[in-house]
Amino acid sequence: MVKEFILEGLNCANCGAKIEQGVSRLPGVTNATVNFLNKTLILETEETANFPELIRNTEGIVKKYEPEVNVIEKKEVKIKDDGDQNEEENQKKRLISLGLGGGLFTLAFLPFWSPGIEFALFLLSYLIVGGEVLMRAGKNILRGQVFDENFLMSIATLGAFAIREYPEGVAVMLFYQIGEYFQDRAVGQSRRSIKALLDIRPEYVNLSFNGVIKRVSPEEAAIGDMMIIKPGERVPLDGKVLEGQAMMDTSALTGESVPRRAKIGDDVLSGFINKDGLLTVQVAKVYGVSTIAKILDLVQNAGSKKAPTEKFITKFAHYYTPAVVLVAVLLAILPPLLIESATFSDWFYRALVFLVVSCPCALVISIPLGFFGGIGAASKKGILVKGGNYLEAINQIDTVVFDKTGTLTKGVFQVTGIHPAGSFTEEEVLEFAALAEFNSNHPIAQSVVQAYDQRLGNQLHQENITGFQEIAGHGVKVQYEGQEILAGNDKLMKQGRIDFQEWQEGGTVVYLAVSGKFAGTIVISDELKEDAKKTMQDLKQLGINKLVMLTGDNQETGQRVGRELSLDRVYAELLPADKVGILERIIQEKTSKKSVVFVGDGINDAPVLARADVGVAMGGLGSDAAIEAADIVLMTDEPAKLAEAVGIARKTRNVVWQNIIFALGVKLVVLVLGAGGLATLWEAVFADVGVAIIAVINAMRLLKS
Question: How far apart are CA 635 and CA 613, in angstroms?
Answer without folding.
Answer: 20
